[in-house]
Every structure is written in C-alpha cells, then in structure tokens.
Automatic annotation (TrEMBL), chain A:
It comes from Ketogulonicigenium robustum. The lineage of its organism: Bacteria, Pseudomonadati, Pseudomonadota, Alphaproteobacteria, Rhodobacterales. It is a multi-pass membrane protein. It holds the Pfam family BPD_transp_2. The keyword Translocase does not apply. PANTHER family: ABC TRANSPORTER PERMEASE PROTEIN, SUGAR ABC TRANSPORTER INTEGRAL MEMBRANE PROTEIN-RELATED. This is Simple sugar transport system permease protein. The keyword Transmembrane helix applies.
From TrEMBL, chain B:
It is found in: Cell membrane. The keyword Membrane applies. Its main location: membrane. This is Simple sugar transport system permease protein. The chain crosses the membrane at residues 21-41, 61-82, 94-110, 116-134, 197-216, 243-264, 285-305, 325-345. It is a multi-pass membrane protein. Pfam families: BPD_transp_2. GO terms for molecular function: transmembrane transporter activity. Keywords: Cell membrane, Membrane, Sugar transport, Transmembrane, Transmembrane helix, Transport.
Amino acid sequence: MMDVLEAVFSVTFLAMVIRQMTPLLLATLGGLISDLSGALNVALEGMMLISALTAVLVSVHYPWYVAVLAAMTAGSALGLLMAFFHLRMRADIILVGFAVNIVATGGTVFALSLATGGDKGTSINLVSKAVPAVNLPFLKGVPGIGDLLFRLLSGHSLLTWFAFVAVFGLWFFLYRMRGGLWLRAVGEYPAAPAAAGIKVDVVRMWALVASGAFTGLAGAQLAMFNYVGFTRDMTAGRGFIALGAVLLGARHPIGALLAALLFGVFDALSFVIATRAQNFPAELIQAIPFVVTIIALILFSWRAQRAKALRGA
Amino acid sequence: MTTMTGKPDRLGTFAREAGRAIGALLIALVVALLIIIATSADPMNAFSQLLTAPLTSKRTIGYWMDDVAKLTLTGLAFSLVFQARQFSMGVQGQVYVGGLFAALVALSPAGATPLAIPLCLIAGMVGGAAYGFLPGYAKAKFGANEIVSSLMLNYIAIKVVNWITRAHLAPPNSGQLMSPPFPPEAVFPALVANTRLDLGIVVALVMTVVVWFILYRTRWGLKLRLVGDNPTFAEYAGIRANAVMIAAMTAAGAVGGLLGAVFVQGRAYGKIAENFDGNLAFEGILIAIVAKNRPLAVPLVALAYGYLRQGAQLMGNRTDVPNEMISVVQALVILLVASSFTVPGRKALGRIFKRRGAVQ
C-alpha cells in the first residue's frame, strides 16, 4: 500500500498520467466536435480501433508521419461514411455509430489476420514504427526544478504536444471563429442557422469528418506510442470512456482536458497498482476507469440538473 | 382506415419491411462474396460453406438452433428498450450478471434439486433486472446519459464476473478460467439427443410471446409504446414517462439476465466460464433493428441471422476465410435497414432522376 502511495506522489506518475491521457484526450476532442454539432458519436471506439490498425499496417512500409496521416484519413473516412448514412440516408446516428463499432471489432481482426498471414491476436510479427518522442534536454538547465521539469515534460509523444495545443486551438475555433459559431448553432438549434442560410447538414458532415480525424490521431497515438503494435480490441473501451468524458467536460474543450486528465490519473493508477500490488485482482484494476466514469457522469449530471432547476429552466 | 383495411395494410407493411430486410441482406451478401473472392484461395468453397454449412449435420443444426435461441433473447431485450426510445446498450452486462446469479444458484445446494432449472432462471432474471434498473434510474433521477452509463456497466460486469469466476468459482489453484460443471439437474435437457438443441429455444419462444403480450395486450405496454413514440404527449396524457422508462429498462434487463442463465445452463456450457457471451449480446441490436422492434418478428430474424452467423463460424473453421468477415455483413445490414434505403429498382431510379430535391 505504501508502495502504491509512494509511486503515486512522484513525477514519474505525472508523466505516466500525461502519456495515458493523450489518446483519450484526442478522442474526447473528436467526440466533442460531433456532439456540439448535434450528433452523438458513439463510434469513437470503432474509429480509434480501425485507425490504430491502419497506423500500424501503414507504418510497416512507410515513415511514421505517413502512418499518422493514414490513421487520420481512416478516421475521417469513417466520419464521412457516418455522415452519409446519417444525413443523406436518414439513419439514426446511434445505430450508424454502432454499425461502425461492429465492423471495427470484427474487421480489424479480419484485416490483421490477412496482414499477418493468420495471426488473429497481435501484430507482433510486423515491424511497425513509433511516433517520435520530443526530448527536451535543455530543461535540465533550469535552476532548481530543472530535473523535475525534464522528467515531467520530456520524452512525450509529438502527438501529446499536438493534443494540448489542439485543446486551445479548438477553443479558439469554437468561441472565436465564425465556423465554430455555426457548429455550435447547428447543434443547439438547427432551425436558426438554417434560416440564416447555413447548410446544417454540411456543417454536421464536416463535424463528423473532423471528429474522425481527431479520433484517428487517438488511434495512432495508442498503437504507435503507448503501445507499438496492434492487439485485438486494444482500445478496450477507451472510446466509450471518451464519450463519457465529452459529457463530463460540460461539452467544452477545457472541460474535455480536465475529464481526460481525471481518467489519465485513474488509468495510470491502475498501472501502478498492477505493478506494485500484485495480489490485487487484475480484473478489478481494469474496472477502475469504468467505475470512475460512471460515478463522475452521475455526479456531473446531477449537478447540471440541479443548476438547471435553480435557474428555473 | 386502419380498422377497415387493417389486415391487408398489415400484410403490405410486413411485405415491404421483409423486402427491405431481404434486399439489405442480399446487398450485404454480395459484398461478402466480393471480400471472399479478394482474400480466399478457394472462394467458391468458402462462399458455399458460408451458405450451406449449418445444414450439413444434426450437430451443426443444433449449433444453429442454439444461436437462434440466444439471438432471440438478446433481440427481445433490445426491442424492449428501443420501443421505449431508450438507447441503453446494457444487455451484455445483464447477460454477465444474470449468468453469474444463475451459476451461483446452480453451484449451491439448490442446484442439485429438481427445482434447479426454474430457480436458476429466476435468479438470472433478478440479477439482470437489477442491472438493467441502474442506468434507467441514473437517467431518470440524475439525467445521466443511458448510453454511456450502460456501456460502462457492461465493462464493469464483464471484469467483475470474470474475476469471480476465475478467483472464486474455478477450482482453487487449478488455473482454470471456468467453474466446475453444474449438477445435471441444473443443466438444460437436450430436446434432440447429442445436439445443442435444448430447453433454451423453448425459453426463448415463451419469452417472445410474453414480451409480445406485455407490449401489445397490456395497459403498461401501451404506455411504454406511447412514451417511445412521443414522450411529451405521453406526459400530457398523464403517463409518468420516467417511471415507464425505468420499468422498460428493468424488464429488458430481466430478459438480458435470462439470456445469461440460458448461456451458462445450456448444453454448450453447463458451467460459467470467463467471457462466456462471445460478444453475442451486442448482435441483438441487429436483430431488433431488422425486426423493427416487433417481438413476434424477432425469432424469425434470429432464425435467418443465426444461420448466417453459424455459416460464418463454420466457414472460419473449415476454410481460410476468418469468420470475423461476417462483421462487414452485420454492419451493412444495420446501416441499410436503419437508413431510408429502399429495395433497389423503381424507387432507386426515381431517386436518380429526381436527384437532390427529394432528399430532406
């Protein structure tokens, strides 16, 4: 027990939190964009899984940045597919999302088995690449806290830095640019932007495509940094947790960052428990992030509901 | 108008919906064939396995019927929540909790008595109902989104049930991931000897009639369908939509829990094992959508889809095409049936000629 506590209050733990939260943050941003446009994207899980496999397979033959772009493209293509069936063919977005999830669980195993010549479990026989880490040796030169800063901030994936920048980029887009206003208006009250001559469906389509692109990056980070390689069902519910994080973050980019941070902490905690307290059942450790999500979701919804009641709405 | 021409109208609707479903299935099968041609060394063999393998022997027909029973139950559970316009995805979690409850009864002294089977089934339903109640209550009371909460509950149930199975029900220090076999009194009797065709199919068909009766012949069922159709109107009519919603999710949970009991007590297992549902629970979404949430249509869809599912399984075993290929067919059928897709032909032509204007 002391072991676990000792590990939690260390810089290494914070660095691990950042690493674990990155794919979740990217997926949460993706979920946020489509949710704000009025389309709850339940396919985050499937999009992440497919783009993770895409990233791994492409990185076998091409440089890492091509693989990351391919993962983004795969995610966007799935977003476009969802947009087609939801907006053009008028299918319910939740059913469309689950169709993507179904094709992802089976399809990735199928594609993996084709690519590896029959292995349905992992891509261990394929030599895939990783996203480069950003090393910041100059941080050590900062007087006093240099060593701490170095251990906290150096060695993270390039995509981690991108994700943090994207939080503020997305905030700027949503609240300071015209496109962001359109996006929020379409989600809030579609009749108004429609009357103003904005093509509601086009905005929603781009929202789903952007959602797919972010989620694709999440998949790339997962399979090209957090783990290098693909294993079946490697997302393990992260997409659904991200969906919860969107709601938990009050549908705001900064909120999304905080929600992802919360899950990063518990994700890292489950790692620490797994390595330090080995007699603790592994299954229960794995359940922690899901328990935290559901408790946080209930508390948050309850607060939001009370706030609404107080306003008399 | 409905009263005067009720019968023909219904038949027409049925024919149209069945036509759409079959059209979607055919398109999906063509895509499956293309994938098989692209990936298999012997595509014709693989495709014919997919289409004919379930009928090759008494044993494979048993596999198929076993799937039909389970798919019917998960389809019913999803139909119930979908009819109330809830998107609770919690059937999988309910299956695990129900299976665990049934297993605990089966492994207790009660499991060796003649009453074992009904007791286990009831225990499964109680467990599943309680687990279905949670996301409904969380939504009604706190406004917690039921999709997210039910998905989280699924993962929690799987992890916890797996842990209990491995650490507490499996024989100590055996390293096994399953409980010892249930006493014979707690395992379903086979309807045809040496096949998996067991009591499960009877349970599924009885449940179909029960769910149909509740939805279409009771006051509560009418309320549930009203809430699903138009919650605001239902509130004006004096129906407490939240109470009906919670009840619908609890009832669906009971069906999900029953499926868990059918899983562990069926001849396929006769014990509880880790990850016993093999992701079948989620396939109820497809069944419910294709059946348009109509309980009486659920077994028919399960019959057709179970055949395809078993065909894919056998194709995976006997040829070089992995059975996961079938997920493409599943997803396509869901997409096509859920969308405003119409049987290709007249309407498709009309659509091409009208181009945009018609949409929206």
